[in-house]
Design brief:
Blueprint: H1 3-21, H2 35-48, H3 70-83, H4 86-100, H5 109-114, H6 119-127, H7 134-170, E1 172-173, H8 183-189, E2 194-195, E3 200-201, E4 208-209, H9 212-215, E5 218-225, H10 231-245, E6 250-257, E7 261-263, H11 271-276, H12 286-295, E8 303-308, H13 317-329, E9 333-340, H14 350-358, E10 363-366, H15 371-380
Parallel strand pairs: 5-6, 5-8, 8-9, 9-10
Antiparallel strand pairs: 1-4, 2-3, 6-7
């Protein structure tokens, strides 16, 4: 490398370290920022510093400068969208809400129009739902709808394709009509009957599948804990609930609960309505929620119940476990998800998780991308793909 090349590389390293360390005599870089770098550093300083403002010319120590003024926060939101990629913007917004207590500013329409919508922002808006003035509600619904549409675009087609395949397989029959013969599986099942002299397979046993949209109907019950820690799971579950409800071969029920139980099935045609029908926060009574779901099951052998909860039970623990055991004994496929999100398992009640596992219902965190496979396995009554 030439001397000039080494100088360029060294200067870039110093620049990056200066952006990381935040300036001041202690950072040791001696680097002065200007232009776009200074503006980026100021945006970082406003959130992650410790006092009154950025360093302007890049020499002072970083200090927080957002305060609680809506115009200043709105300008800052615009700045970070200018200088950082969307995933970084979403992290910084989340940190601003958590670190600086800016949630209440989201009740102002002007603020909502400045933010980058994501699942976590939707969770925050839902937690503020009851305090939201009418002037903000339509803007909030537009933000939530944008996120829901993004999730549906990402998840819907694959979910429908995966579950349609599972329903077809679960409906397989051994005396099918000609139009219902599954030729690939029939040939594989009869390879031992291959006649070399005729170069053909004699199909002693036909394998077919039923017409899932007409003759097969499964029931799915989504039972969702709406305590504050489950916000992202509520968002994803509402989207999946709408996708499942759009499939004629699956009868879908969606129930949310804290210490009370709310059935939102009649709103499943619009997941935004479902989300605004939830109330994040409050206590938890899993037993009461499962009692309600159990009372709505009419065909247990064809039903899948999905409990999405961190399992912190405020109701009657033993009764909850007895209900799960009774449903499984009746033929219900019971799935327990500690979370339905990209964030991994939250804090959860390990004793209850172990008790469910002992009943044959392992509790695990599930990503949105894995959920279709989990549901397909449950519909086919095969082992779940526990990560």
């Amino acid at each position: 490398m030439t001397e000039s090349g080494m100088g360029t590389a060294g200067g870039e390293r110093l620049r990056r370290w200066r952006m990381v360390l935040g300036g001041g005599d202690a950072d040791g870089t001696g680097r002065v920022l200007g232009g776009r770098d200074a503006a980026m550093d100021g945006a970082l300083a406003a959130l992650y510093g410790g006092g009154g403002g950025g360093d302007g010319k890049g020499q002072g120590e970083r200090s927080a400068g957002l305060g609680g003024a809506a115009p200043k926060v709105a300008r800052w939101l615009g700045d970070i969208r200018t200088y950082f990629p969307t995933p970084v913007v979403q992290v910084m917004q989340r940190d601003a809400i958590d670190r600086l207590g800016l949630s209440t500013l989201l009740l102002e329409p002007e603020m909502l129009e400045a933010v980058e919508p994501d699942v976590h922002l939707v969770g925050t808006l839902l937690s503020l739902n009851k305090a939201m003035p009418d002037t903000t509600r339509e803007t909030a619904r537009a933000v939530v709808r944008k996120v829901v549409e993004q999730l549906e675009k990402r998840l819907a087609a694959r979910t429908r394709a995966t579950l349609t395949g599972a329903l077809d397989r679960s409906a397989r029959i051994n005396r099918p009509r000609h139009r219902d013969i599954d030729w690939d599986r029939t040939i594989r099942a009869n390879l031992k009957n291959y006649l070399p002299e005729y170069r053909t397979v004699v199909p002693e046993r036909l394998v077919g599948h039923g017409r899932a949209a007409q003759s097969v109907k499964k029931e799915v019950v989504l039972c969702i804990d709406q305590s504050g820690s489950m916000a992202a799971s509520v968002v994803y579950a509402s989207v999946f609930g709408a996708v499942l409800a759009s499939m004629r071969s699956i009868a879908t029920r969606l129930v949310v609960f804290d210490t009370a139980v709310v059935d939102l099935t009649d709103q499943l045609d619009d997941p935004v309505d479902v989300l605004f029908g939830t109330q994040l926060g409050g206590g938890t009574d899993i037993n009461r929620a499962l009692a309600y779901c159990q009372s709505r099951i009419t065909r247990p052998a064809d039903t899948v119940v999905v409990l999405i909860s961190d399992l912190y039970e405020g109701g009657i623990r033993d009764e909850m476990l007895k209900r799960v055991a009774a449903m499984k004994a009746a033929g219900v496929e019971f799935v327990a998800l500690l979370a339905l999100s990209d964030e991994g398992a939250p804090a959860y009640d390990r004793e209850h998780a172990a008790a469910l596992a002992a009943l044959g219902a392992p509790a695990f965190a599930c990503t949105p991308d894995l959920f279709p496979e989990v549901m397909a396995a449950a519909l086919e009554k095969r082992p779940l793909p526990v990560p």
